[in-house]
Amino acid sequence: MSRILENFPLFPISIILFPGEIQPIHIFEKRYKQLINDIENNGEIFGIPFLKDGTLCEFGSGVVIHKVLAKSPTGEMDILVRGVNLFKMMSIEENLPGKLYGGGTVMILDEMNKTAIQMLQEKFITYKQQLSAINKIPDSMAEKNLPRHILDIAGQLPLDIAEKYKIIKLEKTALREQVLIEKLDFLMMINKKLQEVGYKFYLN
Hints:
This protein has 204 residues and is α+β, with helices and mostly antiparallel strands. It folds into two domains: 3-110, Roll (Archaeosine Trna-guanine Transglycosylase, Chain: A, domain 4), CATH 2.30.130.40; 118-203, no CATH class. The protein is built from five helices and six strands; from the N terminus they run E-E-H-E-E-E-E-H-H-H-H. Strands 1, 2, 3, 4, 5 and 6 form a six-stranded antiparallel β-sheet that branches. The longest helix is centred in the C-terminal third of the chain and has 31 residues, at 173-203. It is globular, with a radius of gyration of 19 Å.
């Protein structure tokens, strides 16, 4: 079931992170320096509402600080954030009580990350095996350790921002799975061509 969180810290920018994805962010505004310092101290999740063409959208990514890469004497920071879940905006405030940064009430969309159907899981396994073969490295990740949930799989695919937002906005799980299956079919076709080219190159 969905969970409602109030006074949820928000940092709107033009990115979407699925669970497990890692993204670098440069922090320079005073309000967001405060937000990151607060989060760094308590280890909690904060939200990145998706900004599309300067407009705040209703969906966003719940993230945690994965690593602080650098801090300047002026307090600017380069950090890595890691996606944890997705959320839908319910309300937003310009400033949380006693804070420079804003926040709001959000609905955590846990139901989006259901266990994927077998076809999607199998295609994802094949895709990962192809990558291992192309890169000529052992498949170090055992099949049983590969992600089995929809958004965890999506987070390991090269999706652009438009594809990600399309997946979030779809109302039915089956439609999300179909989009990912079609993406995997396309990626596996490209990988197959790469394998064929590499094989011919080796023969020559």
